[in-house]
Amino acid sequence: MNAPTGIGARVKRKEDQRFLTGTGRYVDDLPLARATYAHFLRSPHAHAKIKSIDTTAAKAMPGVVAIFTGKDIADAKVGGLICGWVVKDKHGQPHKAPPHPVMAVDTVRYVGDTVAMVVANSHDEAKDAAEAIKVDYEEKPANVDLAKALDKGAAEVHAAEAPGNLIYDWEIGVKADVDAAFAKAAHVTKLDIVNNRLIPNAMEPRAAAAEYDKGTGNYTLWSTSQNPHVLRLILSAFVLGIPEHKLRVVAPDVGGGFGSKIFCYNEETMVTWAASRVGRPIKWTAERSESFQTDAHGRDHVTHAELALDKDGKFLALKVETIANMGAYLSTFSTAVPTYLYATLLAGQYTTPLIYANVKAALTHTAPVDAYRGAGRPEATFVVETIVSKAAKELKMDPAELRRKNFIPSDAFPYQTPVALQYDSGNYPPIIDEAIKIADYKGFEARRAEAKSRGKLRGIGFSSYIEACGLAPSQVIGQLGGGVGQWESAQLKFNPTGNVQILTGSHSHGQGHETTFAQLVSDKLGVPMENIEVVHGDTATTPFGMGTYGSRSLAVGGSAIMKAADKVIAKGKKIAAHLMEASVADVVFENGTFKVAGTDKAVPLGQAVFAAYVPHNYPLAEIEPGMDENAFYDPANFVYPAGTQICEVEIDPDTGVVEVISHTAVDDFGNIINPMIVEGQVHGGIVQGVGQALLENAVYDKETGQLISGSYMDYTMPRASDVPSFKLGYKVTPCPHNPLGVKGCGEAGAIAAPAAVMNAVHDALAPLGVSHVPMPATPLNVWQAINGASK
Amino acid sequence: MYDFHYHRPKTLADAVGLLKGKDEARPMSGGMTLIPTLKQRLAKPSDVVDLGGIKELAGIKVEGNNVVIGGMTRHADVASSADVKGAIPALAYLAGHIGDPQVRNRGTIGGSIANNDPAADYPGAVVALNATVTTNTGKHTADSFFKGLFETALSDGELVTSVSFPKAEKAAYMKFPNPASRYAMVGVFVAKTAGGVRVAVTGAGPCVFRVKAMEDALAKNFSSDAIKDIKVPADGLNSDIHASAEYRAHLVNVMARRAVDAANK
Fold first, then answer.
1. Residues of each domain in chain B carrying CATH 3.30.465.10
2. On the CB side of A321, how many CA atoms lie within 13 Å of its CA?
3. What is the full per-residue pLDDT of chain B (265 aa) written as tens digits?
């Protein structure tokens, strides 16, 4: 018997065969005849005026085809890159929108800013020529320290368009109400934290290749994009002006994105623009150091938060002030991340009745900052879950008990939070109970004592996260300033012999859609897995769709597939009714076969499909031939996965080294299609969260703005040996508003883990009197915290 | 990388001949530092003389009371050598913890000590065991070989042919790896040989150095307690985003005590 392949089965990933045997096709693998190679000359300075650029010598170098500078692009009237989300500040004014030129014209604003593009017959020749370009810079003071970016006297990144480096001063909630609640509080817990800046580090660096067909005037761009249709829309409508029907964007196999490949970047824009000028295809692949310098970074908040509690430990109000780093230019969705994806999550799993958040977005002379796995929600969870654990410590309460006391009751859903979101479903107490059981919380004190006998400090930390994902109801997004719809598309294209292509507007760059989506259709329509192909990533073949980010692909894209499948069944019923000479109302569809209830009449789906393509015996008067159904699905609400993670660490007080001993995650992702893939997503997410908590840190020199952690020599990526085998569990409350009852699992691990780990670190160090360790809790930071406490 | 002339001589004499008179020629042993440097265009040698084809430079021999390791012997071969494990297990341990498997299968002892990266592991062993470095032109004592940051006693065209390590009565290496690169942020090699006790520290300063106060204390009493209060001054130690000078100074003491404990096991 074949292994099960339906919903809930642990089907091995179809795509892994090619990935693991080196037969995937990535952008850099494309064989393009007569290709040229691009190299970008980048700014070595964080802030400088470009006094002159002399490309004369460089243009005469061997193999050079063309050199373009910012001036060339400006002269050609190429538009700047856009920020696609208009956030209105607390006075109702739209955010400041400084220009984001595709290449710097007269000023460079971060180390890595694009100064010139060299196109040559080989990559080496392009690099050689780039070295021969003479740029005369006048260095200027750089503003790199986020905490001081909005201070008077800080060097301005865009003085004219964003005075004082302020992009917006935004708020949610009523401050006076919150202040009144604080005045009556029995206890106030205060917290000052920095959410450390991260560099995405997808395994495949960003890459772009473009070709221009002179005969038709058509452009093709191959790009490492998470959302090729959106990239095409931006390039067409705002930047290059190439109409959408003359621009094809293909995102073939893509090796990881984590958000960093959502955005429209300089390099792919330049490669496309230059392809028609050069008259030959152009290829570009980032070197790893370019990825470090120029991929949009993540997180980077400085936050002060206060939680007011009554004498019984009930949360009365939460007040949060955050400065969010935007970098030197506003990346595609940068403005939304620290507002609508952050402050709206500050209720967490709790009934906190009053919340006020003030977010100031600041420019600095650093790489742009935008969405990175979790995007705003990890930052929110870190604030909420850290302050809750800190409050528990201060009140000498059990951290699980304090959480339980404040959980939204199971019968209170749908639940309207004070920060705009309405949680559709959830049931939090059984999740924490299960996590406590799996983690053997009861046995912790004995383990702590045993660790102490070995000279180790053991600590335990909780993190009960909520996330709003499955982006998103289009009209809500529109009201909040988002510039795009957030539905997803699907097309089920049957071939005459009964096999089927699922065309999706979402994009897989590691998530396993080729398997999960095939499972949906196999389960629903009874088509064997091997007869299903998932097609994604090509604007020429797939319907317009929004791509993959925000844990949306299954909840939104999968729902679109289900809608299309319903249309297939509805049409198939009419065909089958005709073939069986029955009434449509009497036809049922079961296990891939149309039947007339109470009879032995049956028409397999394949037979109905064949009849649709060879309509000799077919109700042509009533229905069209063919079996090719489209659907667009716009969700009614976000989906709200939730869960609790429990981390246990041991710290070596002599060295400050933190070891994660055990990590438990219990999640409610709604219904689960492929548990193996979900586990993989949770594992990867936790590792990224542990990475943020203990290892990863993007560090710019505060004076010079040089990226110090610009390679793997200094940027600490998590390794397999840094984490234990994770303990996972699930609780299921199906999403009530999508046809699959699914939520989202892609970001949860990364959202919850940093707080769980840091709470464990603080718990371990509490006996030494340590109250604060900065994230990441590197050996140095832990040792300094211990040392500071003991002095 | 920039273009260069590549040579792969079969004998030491040919290698020396190829390097002679060429100011911009560079010898290459395992290439674990040179290749990344070339790829980042941080070096522009006219010629690269690959020593990998010189059979006489690789291999491990026991000669009397010494273990003699050829300059082109790879870390993986030192780590797995029964001779090294038998005579100086701490040296095999050190070699087995350099970099990652790829580095250990390419990198060599001669290349490592000739480069004298402040965060390299081998200098700690060479100094603590008071090894002798033999080159095509002569011999260097351990103490005279390492001169400073990326600086050694080697003159132009002088190649490390072998390193001779005296057997140790007790020895251990404790490394605190840089969390990102896994180079030694602080590595302490403690050895008790016929010549006495030595404590050599790598990673913490611009160049490997000895801690005389610990050596004296351990000569009297080879136990971790004997050095627990001996602090190394932070002045002059390396400081970066991973470790301040003060933290490195602290780690020297911790790693030294752990090395002594390990050596006593």
1. 58-264
2. 8
3. 999 999 999 999 999 999 999 999 999 999 999 999 999 999 999 999 999 999 999 999 999 999 999 999 999 999 999 999 999 999 999 999 999 999 999 999 999 999 999 999 999 999 999 999 999 999 999 999 999 999 999 999 999 999 999 999 999 999 999 999 999 999 999 999 999 999 999 999 999 999 999 999 999 999 999 999 999 999 999 999 999 999 999 999 999 999 999 999 9
- Does pLDDT of A631 surpass 90? yes
Cross-chain residue pair B244–A784, CB shorter than 8 Å: yes
CATH number belonging to the domain at B5-55, selected among 1.10.10.10, 3.30.450.20, 3.30.43.10, 3.20.20.70: 3.30.43.10
Residues of A with CB under 8 A from a CB of B: 127, 131, 289, 654-656, 695, 697, 699, 708-709, 712-717, 778-780, 783-784
Nearest-by-Cβ selection for B179 from A779, A783, A784: A779
Domains and CATH numbers, chain A: 18-140+203-256+261-294 (3.90.1170.50), 301-472+637-790 (3.30.365.10), 487-633 (3.30.365.10)
- In A515-605 the beta strands, taken as DSSP E runs, fall at 532-536, 587-590, 593-596, 602-604
Report residue A421 as tokens: 């979101």
Q: Please tell me which of the candidates A127, A712, A784 has its beta carbon nearest to residue B180.
A: A712
pLDDT at A351 over 60: yes
CB contacts of A131 in chain B (<8 Å) are 41
Chain length of chain A: 791
Q: How many residue pairs from chains A and B have C-beta atoms closer than 8 A?
A: 44
Q: Which residue in A699, A713, A779 is closest to B181 by CB distance?
A: A713
- Alpha-carbon dihedral angle through residues A780, A783, A789, A790, given to the nearest 10 degrees: -140
The CATH class that applies to domain B58-264 reads alpha beta
Please give, rounded to a whole number of angstroms, the shortest distance from the CA of A708 to a CA of chain B.
Answer: 8
Q: Model confidence over A680-738: pLDDT tens digits?
A: 999 999 999 999 999 999 999 999 999 999 999 999 999 999 999 999 999 999 999 99
The ipTM, to two decimals, is: 0.96
- Residues in contact with A291: Cβ distance below 8 Å, sequence separation at least 6, in sequence order: A199, A201, A202, A205, A206
Residue A699: closest CA among chain B residues belongs to which residue? B241
CB pair distance less than 8 Å for B254 and A655: yes
Angle formed by the axes of helices A399-406 and A377-394, nearest 10°:
120
pLDDT category at A402 given cuts 50, 70, 90 is very high
> Are B242 and A783 a contacting pair at CB < 8 A?
no
Distance CA A326, CA A347 (A): 24
**Sheet containing A657-668, strands listed edge to edge, beginning at the edge strand earlier in sequence:** A457-466, A642-652, A657-668, A727-730
Q: Which residue does chain B place closest to A718, by CA atoms?
A: B180
Q: What is the DSSP string of A552-565?
A: -IIIIIIHHHHHHH
Amino acid type, A357 = A
Min Cα–Cα distance to chain B from A646, Å: 24
pLDDT band per the 50, 70, 90 thresholds, residue A1: very low
Domain with CATH 3.30.43.10 in chain B: 5-55
User: Which residue, among B206, B223, B204, has the nearest Cα to B214 in the 3D structure?
Assistant: B223
Q: Is the pLDDT of residue A791 over 80?
A: no
A127, A655, A699 ranked by CB distance to B241: nearest: A699
Distance CA B189, CA B210 (A): 10
pLDDT tens sequence across A613-630: 999 999 999 999 999 999
Q: What is the chain A residue with the closest CA to B179?
A: A716
Q: Which chain B residues touch A if contact means CB-CB below 8 Å?
A: 40-41, 176, 178-181, 183, 240-244, 247, 250-251, 254
